[in-house]
UniProtKB/TrEMBL annotation:
Annotated source species: Negadavirga shengliensis
Keywords in alphabetical order: Hydrolase
Protein name: NUDIX hydrolase
Keyword Cell inner membrane: no
GO molecular function, one term: hydrolase activity
């Protein structure tokens, strides 16, 4: 996947969620900026993440982000890589240790633009996060990376309690409950 493919996928991306509709055009415009795949673009840049679920769609894997102190899906910066699916899969493997990761039916599962607060020398900026639906086996051992303080398979009925009112995570949870289960 390069920036042309990403742009096409975003142009064809449809969502029933108003909060996503509000920033689809911003994502599309950003694909043409060569530094949008790098932290060099200080106003905001692409990131990629994985909404990891078990095969039966009863649990999701979340990490307690070390810097942000929030339970989130696994993912990270593109760091120059325009293949955001590759970025998401690499980050998921590095941050979880899981070997059974596999892409599920839809290519782009979700998109979200959110503000990252000032941290150290990094000023406040936007992350334009492209998310992919990934399945994994829950019985594999988890390996906590330096990015996280903890990892946990969280049952769908406990996600909201853990993440609070994080609209984007609740949106992915709702999308997951509507996706087809392949057994």
């Amino acid at each position: 996947m390069d920036r042309k493919i990403l742009k096409t996928l975003l142009e064809n991306y449809r969502t029933p969620f108003e909060e996503e509709k509000q920033f689809v055009d911003d994502f599309i415009a950003l694909t043409d900026d060569p530094i949008a795949y790098s932290r060099e673009r200080k106003k905001g840049h692409f990131t990629a993440s994985s909404w990891i679920v078990n095969r039966r769609r009863t649990h999701t894997l979340l990490g307690l982000h070390r810097k942000l102190q929030k339970w989130l899906q696994l993912g990270g910066h593109a760091d120059g890589n325009e293949n955001l699916l590759e970025v998401a899969m690499t980050e998921a493997k590095e941050e979880s240790g899981l070997a059974s990761l596999r892409l599920v039916d839809r290519f782009i599962f979700d998109i979200d633009r959110h503000i990252i607060p000032t941290y150290g020398e990094d000023a406040q900026h936007f992350h334009y996060d492209v998310r992919f639906l990934i399945e994994a086996e829950m019985d594999e051992p988890l390996v906590i990376s330096p990015e996280s303080k903890s990892l946990a398979w969280v049952s769908f009925d406990m996600v909201e309690e853990l993440v609070g009112h994080n609209i984007s995570i609740l949106r992915m949870l709702e999308k997951t409950s509507k996706s087809e289960i392949i057994i």
